[in-house]
Amino acid sequence: MTDTRESIDDAVTMREMRYEDTETIAQLTTQLGYRRSADEIAAWIARLDRGNPEQIAFVACVRGEVVAWIEVSIERRLQSEPFGFIGGLVVSERVRGRGIGRRLCERAEEWTREQGLEILRVTSRSTREGAHRFYIRDGYHEVKTSLVFEKRVGPKTERP
Question: Transmembrane residues, as ranges (predicted)?
């Protein structure tokens, strides 16, 4: 993409993620270092389309081409007030640094407020220093440091 900043800014639109975005979402997700098949992405979008009111995903498009996505949900925990949570955000390497991620975060913040929530959280792998700088510039601040532990409790199965 050889557009100037101004022409891209004028051409960016946002909307909810749709089934027909499956292939592009799968490709973008690999830029985060995750391998999700188009079938896995399609199944996730189908579950979203069945009406989970506590989870939503938005895409950013430049002239109709999906170039970024964000997923946000409501987290309800016994020990804290409910909060919005950004489960994932990726902007195509071709258009990073042009404000598209910021605009998607603003849309996630708006959705979070519409749900009656005050806080929007995001986690970021410790090695993703560029992402940390992005969130700090966007007004987020570090509130804690954690380690993530997991244990496989069942056989690995193919997801639909």
Answer: none
Q: If phi over 0 gives left and psi between -120 and 50 gives alpha, with beta otherwise, what is residue 99?
A: left
**What is the C-alpha separation between 58 and 112, in angstroms, rounded?**
13
The answer to whether residues 1 and 45 touch, using CB atoms and an 8 Å cutoff, is no
CA dihedral 34, 136, 93, 87 (to 10 degrees): 30
Q: Which of 56, 36, 59 is nearest to 117 (CA)?
A: 56
In this model, does residue 38 exceed pLDDT 80?
A: yes
Whether the Cβ atoms of residue 60 and residue 24 lie closer than 8 Å to each other: no
The predicted pLDDT at position 30 comes to: 93
How do strand 80-91 and strand 12-16 relate by DSSP bridges?
unpaired
Residue 80 pLDDT > 90: yes
Type and span of the H or E element at 15: strand 12-16
The CATH architecture that domain 5-137 belongs to is 3-Layer(aba) Sandwich (3.40)
What ranges do the domains of the chain cover? 5-137
Give the pLDDT confidence score for residue 159 in this predicted structure. Answer: 56
Higher pLDDT, 54 or 158: 54
